Amino acid sequence: MAGSPADLSLKVAGGRIIAAATPGPATYLPCGTRLVFVPDTDSGDAVAIDAEPRGGHLPDVILRALPTLSPESALRAWTVLEVVAKLTDTPILTVLRAIPAETLIRLDRRNVELLWHRQTIKIERHDTDDVWLALGRLA
Q: What are phi and psi of 44, to 5 degrees?
């Protein structure tokens, strides 16, 4: 049985993703739970995370933005788009319009590298039974 997102604690490369009010790169779930990346050491790397709940209603904005993807693939892709937006300080709709359709289709893979305005972004998926979760780092 899946636990509550409020109990989330994942070991990832270079740190942990936990449900906490701890400072750091974070995302909020619709239920109000704050997920944050806590690095093992302060490497200075730019990191961003985004998560969406599994099994719920697909928000209209995501449905309209990614109409050709299944609901699960759309949510996974959306988390990656949000990570890119956060890392590059770019509005999400600008990111969405700029990424080619063939790239959008592969955004739900486990590990993806994207090139955004000459910046390489490495995406790792850390999905759980409760959430679709993407973590990105500027390479």
A: 85, 0
| 72 to 47, 68, 77, 87, 132: CA distances (angstroms) | 24, 12, 9, 23, 9
pLDDT digits (tens, 9 = 90+) for 24-41: 999 999 889 999 999 988
pLDDT of residue 128: 92
Domain residues for the domain of 89 are: 5-138
Number of domains forming the structure of the chain? 1
Residue carrying structure tokens 């709940």: 53
Q: Please provide residue 24's backbone torsions phi and psi, each rounded to the nearest 5 degrees.
A: 145, 175
Mean pLDDT value across residues 12-19: 90
User: 132 has which bridge partners?
Assistant: 52
How is residue 135 annotated by DSSP? E
**Chain centroid to CA 48:** 7
Question: What tokens appear for 127 in the block?
Answer: 């999905």
